Task: inverse folding
């Protein structure tokens, strides 16, 4: 059953996890449609919560500009980004799915290109030592369940600007000894395609800045 659910999650480009209440929880790829409402902002500015360390990825681990998706018994559907291929070379991602028609497979390929055709800084984890902060920080970090949304700000060396990144919590590790409590939050950076407003059949007008999910 778990293997089958994981296949469904991959073809939907969604999420599957065990929630704090013990329920197996599924989120579709449009879960963050329209953007998020961050519960807290972490960063170096006045009034922002303090973190002690960030792990930021700038590599090509999540860079693909040629997506090929094939359903069982169907024809391989392909979506590409010519600008990304010109900049970085062709990087191909292939997937097999359980979709029942080729249009659904093509939608998945296009979604993958929307997510992964461009490089962007991704925050993989954030380290917090709440005992150094005030009680408001304790209240926030102890509420941090999976998919809790935050904004994280950071200043890359030499960049001359502050990055403002929306993330969701994916997990947390605790290290506790007398007088010391360290929390490591594992985060997922939301791509721009995930927070767009989508066109709903029968309720929206096509070609007015929205897109079909």
Result:
């Amino acid at each position: 059953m778990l293997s089958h659910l994981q296949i469904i999650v991959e073809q939907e480009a969604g999420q599957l996890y065990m929630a704090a209440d013990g329920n197996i929880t599924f989120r579709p790829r449009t879960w963050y449609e329209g953007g998020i409402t961050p519960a807290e902002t972490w960063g170096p500015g006045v009034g922002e919560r303090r973190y002690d360390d960030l792990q930021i990825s700038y590599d090509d681990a999540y860079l693909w500009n040629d997506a090929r998706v094939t359903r069982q018994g169907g024809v391989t559907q392909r979506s590409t980004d010519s600008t990304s291929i010109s900049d970085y070379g062709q990087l191909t991602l292939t997937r097999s799915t359980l979709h029942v028609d080729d249009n659904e497979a093509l939608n998945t390929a296009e979604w993958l290109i929307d997510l992964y055709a461009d490089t962007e800084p991704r925050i993989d984890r954030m380290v917090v030592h709440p005992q150094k902060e005030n009680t408001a920080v304790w209240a926030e970090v102890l509420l941090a369940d999976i998919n809790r949304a935050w904004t994280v700000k950071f200043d890359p060396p030499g960049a001359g600007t502050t990055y403002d990144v929306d993330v969701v919590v994916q997990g947390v590790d605790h290290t506790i000894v007398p007088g010391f409590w360290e929390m490591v939050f594992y985060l997922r950076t939301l791509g721009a395609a995930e927070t767009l407003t989508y066109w709903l059949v029968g309720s929206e007008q096509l070609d007015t800045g929205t897109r079909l999910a």
Remarks:
- The helical segments are 2-12, 82-88, 102-116, 135-141.
- Residues 56 and 115 are 18 Å apart (CA to CA).
